[in-house]
Amino acid sequence: MEKRGVAIPLESYHLARYAVQVPCYVCEQGNLFDADYCRHCQAPMALAHQANSQNVHPAMIAAVGPSGVGKTVYLGMLMDMLSRRSSGLQGLARGAFSITLQQEAVAKLARCEFPRCTHYEPDRWNWVHCQVTIPARRRPAELIMPDMSGEAISDEIEHPDSLLGVRSLLNRACGALCLLTPPNCRKGAWNRITSRSSCSAICTS
Ligand SMILES: Nc1nc2c(ncn2[C@@H]2O[C@H](COP(=O)(O)OP(=O)(O)O)[C@@H](O)[C@H]2O)c(=O)[nH]1
Ligand SMILES: [Mg+2]
């Protein structure tokens, strides 16, 4: 009987993939190709993989405001309204992780509860990458809007460069949505953020 050779694939080539660093979409620092979260700023690496594989360069919008002002509820409801096309604009979630914020907020509100407090660490925030179709524009807008922790934003304002995730986001964001309560509206640091031309301020009470 004739014996046939068995082909055993050489797995060592996998190691070569570790030699190429993948830049994080938020802080632009290098990571291993199979990292789930950036080891420098804790942002999800899915944002970088999605941008590379789909060849899109989403703009980042920072939703800022003190803890408890209503950022999570506002962003969750905004995503729900955009996905239902209730305002003429249509939002389409890019990637499964992008619908968690909307799902959690809507599920809680439907039970007459509010969403739980946002975690401090960027790897536990809800990150939204969505495509928004605007009737007057031919090309849809690609946006990344993380639901940031108010405590982490306040810490970064008080101790600059202590939280790379927050700092990189604020530096790279092309616009900011600032939610404030009346007493915060008069505070210096938040005033400086809202006075930037690319910032929309919403006062909640
Ligand atoms: N009445 C009312 N209360 C709200 C609303 N949004 C938020 N809140 C209250 O504000 C708290 C904090 O909301 P949240 O969205 O988690 O704030 P965040 O810390 O800025 O993300 C909630 O637990 C509610 O008590 C709203 O639309 N209406
Ligand atoms: Mg929150």
Under CATH at level 1, the class stands as Alpha Beta
The CATH architecture can be named as 3-Layer(aba) Sandwich
How many strands? 8
* Secondary-structure element order, N to C: HEEHEHEHEEHHEHHE
Radius of gyration: 20 Å
Determine the N-to-C terminus distance. Answer: 86 Å
Structural class: alpha/beta
Q: What is the 3D shape? A: globular
Bound molecules: guanosine-5'-diphosphate, magnesium ion
- Provide the helix percentage: 25-40%
- The CATH topology turns out to be Rossmann fold
Q: Biggest sheet, in brief?
A: 6 strands, mixed
Proportion in β-strands:
15-25%
| Average pLDDT, all residues | 88
Task: Estimate nothing, just give the exact number of structural domains.
Answer: 1
The strands making up the biggest β-sheet line up spatially as: 4-5-6-3-7-8
Low-confidence stretches: none
Total of helices:
8
